[in-house]
Amino acid sequence: MLNIYKIIAIDGPSSSGKGTIAKLVAQKLGFDYLDSGAIYRALALLVIKNELTVEKNLMQIVSLITTMKLSFTQDGVFIDNENISAKIREEKTGMMASILGKNGLIRENLLNFQRSFALKNNLVTDGRDMGSVVFPQAILKIFLTASAEKRAQRRFNQLQLLGKSVKMESILRDIILRDEQDSNREVAPLTHDSRYKLLDNTSLTIEECVSKIVTWYNDTIRCS
Hints:
- Helix 2 (about 35-50) crosses helix 4, helix 4 packs parallel to helix 8 and helix 7 crosses helix 8.
- The chain has 9 helices and 8 strands.
- It is α/β, with parallel strands linked by helices.
- A hairpin with a 2-residue loop joins strand 3 (about 70-75) and strand 4.
């Protein structure tokens, strides 16, 4: 795909802080931000609502993609006029999103939607395969990770703030399961190679991560 805009792709496992950090990097650099995970989670929400499964209703799910009226604003993520920001962060939605992400036909039908964001402005995007599949031309690719225990703690804190009754053991189990699903799926698995800069933020603050990525970007621009 032809593209004249600069893209920073941040990939990594669940609850590694990709979204928060990507948003702040985008603000710092004056780039647009794309939450690719929210696209999959929004579709997952519709799949759950309509009681569909990939095994029995694949073509219906593909049809949902073409009719899904998804928008991103400062107030959150919307389908039609409904703010779904909280619903798409529920664990069952995340698990369904991971299942959908393993299907090649579903991923193919979501690609053009994701790529259209890079035709408008410089972009910071986060997900599982932003640098490896969706935006292979990204000027900077980051693989952001943290220990499973640290990510489970972050997720636990996040859900508690939303008033959810959750157990740490259950969250840790779900995160480990999602890691296995995302890393071992046949289509666009969660992975990174020598073109990525690895950033383990188990012991780093959000501000330290943002600063490091901005520095990497500036160094990349100076060297290009």
